[in-house]
Amino acid sequence: MNKKRIYEYERGKLEKLKKYQLPHSFKKIGLGIALIAFILFFVRKLAFENLDELRIIAKNGMLVGMLLIVISKEKIEDELISKLRGQAFSFAFIAGVVYALVMPLTNYIVDLVIGSKEASYEEFGDFIILWFMMVVYLAFFQVLKKTR
Fold it and tell me: What residues does each domain of the chain span?
């Protein structure tokens, strides 16, 4: 294979990945959904103490809003942004796995040290892990963009 064919092949793979991304305007929609969900968390806590349906709606809204932000294109989407996006996804995945493994053990050890009689090993739920991974991705991606 010559260099031109390799370049065309890689370019085609990059174009296929771009099909699965949303337009840049969806970042604003995702941010709006995430902010509304964040406000719902506080409204539920202040006004509706026992309304679990509102909590579920807020949690799912937060995840959907953040997902829209994560899979939306940047204003200028080039090869460097794609590379940074891949690095950020890799780091977020590794950080999420480490977080899911280490934090329950850390909580258990802290409960034992404090002397809590009800120390138990509890795993985190899906919302906490997904939220953590998306926050890590967004933060790391922004840092990578600023330092490029």
Answer: 76-148
pLDDT digits (tens, 9 = 90+) for 116-144: 667 666 777 888 899 999 999 999 999 99
CB proximity list for 133: less than 8 A, separation 6 or greater: 92, 93, 95, 96
**Residues 142, 33: Cα–Cα separation, whole Å:** 20
* Contacting residues for 120 by C-beta, under 8 A, at least 6 apart: 108, 111
CB 137 within 8 Å of CB 92? yes
As to burial, measured by CB atoms within 10 angstroms (0-12 exposed, 13-18 middle, 19+ buried), residue 52 is exposed
Residue with tokens 């204003």: 75
pTM, full prediction: 0.76
Name the residue type at position 36: I
Integer Cα distance of 114 and 17 in angstroms: 49
pLDDT tens column, 13-69: 666 666 678 888 999 999 999 999 999 888 887 776 667 788 888 899 999 999 999
Q: HSE of 40 in the Cβ direction (CA atoms, 13 Å)? A: 18
Structure tokens at 7: 């370049």
